[in-house]
């Protein structure tokens, strides 16, 4: 274990591949046997994966689900370069060296029991992780998960049986896993997928927020992960409705444990602007501190 202040939850493990499934759009879901990591991970945590033994640079990938009892950790990733191409070739039974869980997690607040979770592309996994935590530990919460993708979603979609205020007619596509958990979800895309909202995730979220009364809206807190441009739009939406908002940033990383300072981002604080490391000072930040305008 790496024992250092503010990151003493990180472990290094040789994790066996339990499942590795490919989906359209060069997307993959990887399940690893990593019991200690599964026990320590929280929504917003990520791991630094060794894609191949001959490739020294690891790749940071968000954790999507864990099962502490069974000892597995699950990731969704998209093939974007040489490292993830090599990772996609790894087979069940092989061992991958992983470093994690890393990072400051999302924080749920009992005073805001109507969380709005917005995920885009490979920013979807942390939203599923939060939803799972809500299912297990915050049964009085009424979350809504909105997910957007411009490639086919890495799961079959199904019509939702959970009715929601303000959602346009015909927008009924949902994630089956969330339906099984009785957590409301809706999908958005510009690709004309059946049942999906034709537009941006923030536009769909605005429909829902406008349909809430003032008391309900005061119960909302936004949580989001996805491309930078999407997170900027989410921060503007939060400002529009005067809502607290936490975002998880996606950045290229070298060490992922705060040593190289290669993943810094400017954060506005009461004392002025500071450069923060996304890996260990984040990846979760207050949206208003990162997106100041």
Can you walk through the features of this model?
By secondary structure, the protein is α/β, with parallel strands linked by helices. It folds into two domains: 11-102, Elongation Factor Tu (Ef-tu), domain 3 (Beta Barrel), CATH 2.40.30; 116-246, 3-Layer(aba) Sandwich (Rossmann fold). Helices cover 22% and strands 32% of the residues. The chain has helices spanning 35-40, 82-88, 124-137, 176-180, 201-211, 214-217, 228-241, 287-290, and strands spanning 11-23, 27-33, 46-49, 59-67, 72-78, 95-102, 116-120, 144-148, 158-159, 173-174, 184-189, 197-198, 222-225, 245-248, 264-269, 272-277, 284-286. A seven-stranded mixed β-sheet has the order 12-11-8-7-13-14-17, with helices on both faces. The chain has a six-stranded antiparallel beta barrel with strand order 1-2-5-4-3-6. Strand 15 (264-269) and strand 16 form a beta hairpin. Helix 5 packs parallel to helix 7 (228-241).
């Amino acid at each position: 274990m790496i024992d250092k202040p503010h990151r003493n939850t990180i472990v290094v493990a040789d994790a066996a591949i339990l499942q590795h499934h490919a989906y359209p759009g060069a997307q993959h879901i990887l399940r690893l046997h990593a019991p200690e990591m599964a026990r320590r991970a929280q929504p917003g945590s990520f791991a630094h994966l060794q894609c191949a033994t001959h490739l020294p640079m690891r790749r940071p990938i968000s954790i999507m689900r864990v099962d502490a009892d069974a000892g597995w950790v699950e990731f969704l990733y998209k093939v974007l370069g040489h490292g993830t191409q090599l990772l996609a070739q790894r087979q069940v039974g092989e061992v991958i060296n992983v470093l994690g869980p890393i990072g400051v997690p999302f924080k749920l607040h009992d005073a805001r029991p109507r969380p709005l979770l917005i995920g885009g592309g490979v920013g979807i996994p942390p939203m599923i992780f939060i939803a799972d935590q809500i299912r297990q530990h915050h049964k009085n919460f009424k979350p809504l998960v909105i997910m957007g993708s411009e490639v086919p979603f890495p799961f079959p979609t199904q019509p939702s049986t959970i009715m929601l205020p303000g959602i346009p007619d015909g927008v009924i596509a949902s994630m089956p896993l969330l339906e099984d958990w009785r957590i409301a979800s809706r999908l958005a895309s510009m690709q004309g997928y059946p049942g999906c909202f034709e537009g941006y995730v923030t536009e769909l979220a605005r429909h829902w927020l406008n349909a809430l009364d003032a008391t309900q809206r005061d119960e909302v807190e936004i949580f989001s992960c996805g491309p930078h441009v999407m997170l900027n739009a989410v921060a503007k939406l939060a400002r529009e409705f005067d809502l607290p908002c936490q975002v998880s940033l996606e950045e290229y990383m070298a060490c992922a444990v705060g040593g190289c300072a290669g993943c810094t981002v400017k954060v506005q604080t009461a004392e002025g602007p500071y450069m923060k490391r996304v890996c260990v000072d984040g990846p979760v930040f207050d949206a208003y501190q990162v997106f100041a305008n």
